[in-house]
Design goal:
About 45% of the residues lie in helices and about 15% in strands. By secondary structure, the chain is of the alpha/beta class. It has one domain: Vaccinia Virus protein VP39 (Rossmann fold, 3-Layer(aba) Sandwich), CATH 3.40.50.150. Helix 7 links the parallel strand 4 and strand 5. Helix 1 packs across helix 2, helix 1 runs antiparallel to helix 3 and helix 7 crosses helix 8. The longest helix is centred in the first third of the chain and has 13 residues. The radius of gyration is 17 Å and the shape is globular. The termini are close together.
Length: about 270
């Protein structure tokens, strides 16, 4: 089965989507945004796209512009918009107001208001009644271990075989994304190809033949797992601990891939 097909006008599609997404405040790098757009439009599996953690809509706009261009289903964007997560606290972002109005304004400004289905709720509350298949599960919400683990466990049962789960800030100083990625993804034979692009950790869900990718996952785990001991206490890193984190992170391969290289990685026979 060919899980990925690269469209002829993909570069232009990604350029146009990033042109709008870049106008929205947020923490998503261009290489990360383009990777999300690539995954969103290229996977040949059924299901929707679920975003957990929208903030002001940077990744939401990127994904929605792609879906708008190619006639795909709207993005499901889940966020209580109350600033209650470790990432925003650690980055000293103001917590005295909601992001919801600005989020909606950014969707309208990018012309994608009708391509986003917002849920101003906690992800756990949405998960209780969720029944739809998912092809891309984008987790960028609560970066604590408890939060990231809860999001992963709640929505993974709806990820279709061949779909992709991706965590943001897995290579930043948060325990949740990197720990869940190493412990629940890289160490599991339910997953196939995996990697990092910037600070995004991603993996393809392959419950039927994930064991065939065990060697590749083990190599990636070897590079990423040394970070776990440094962030496990979920305390702000300072001094020597911060330096150790940066040194170990430098050993994790995280370069952007061309669409063709990513397609070859996902589609290679086993």
């Amino acid at each position: 089965m060919s899980f990925v097909t690269i469209r002829e006008d993909l570069d232009q599609g990604l350029n146009d989507a990033w042109n709008e997404a870049s106008k929205v405040p947020g923490f998503l790098l261009e290489s990360e945004a383009r990777f999300l757009g690539l995954v969103a439009v290229s996977l040949n599996v059924n299901g929707g796209i679920v975003e957990i953690g929208s903030f002001k809509g940077k990744s939401t706009v990127m994904l929605a512009k792609i879906c708008q261009r190619y006639g795909l289903a709207p993005i499901v964007a889940i966020d209580p918009h109350n600033f209650n997560n470790a990432e925003l606290q650690n980055r000293k972002t103001s917590t005295d107001s909601t992001t919801y109005d600005e989020f909606l304004a950014n969707l309208k400004g990018a012309g994608v208001f009708d391509f986003v289905e917002p849920h101003r709720m906690y992800s756990g509350d949405v998960a209780q009644s969720w029944r739809e298949p998912i092809r891309l599960l984008w987790i960028d919400g609560d970066h604590s271990y408890k939060g990231a683990k809860a999001d992963f466990d709640a929505f993974l049962p709806h990820l279709v075989p061949g779909g992709v789960v991706a965590f943001h800030d897995a290579l930043h100083e948060f325990a949740g994304p990197i720990r869940v990625f190493v412990e629940d993804v890289l160490r599991s034979d339910r997953f196939g190809s995996a990697g990092f692009v910037g600070s995004i950790a991603w993996a393809q869900f392959r419950p039927a033949d994930g064991e065939l990718f065990r060697k590749d996952r083990k190599e990636l785990e070897k590079a990423a797992s040394p970070l776990l001991d440094i962030v496990k206490d979920e305390a702000e890193l300072r001094g020597v601990a911060k330096l150790r984190f940066k040194l170990r992170r430098a050993r994790v391969p995280r370069s952007a891939m061309s669409p063709q290289d990513w397609a070859s990685l996902i589609n290679r026979p086993r």
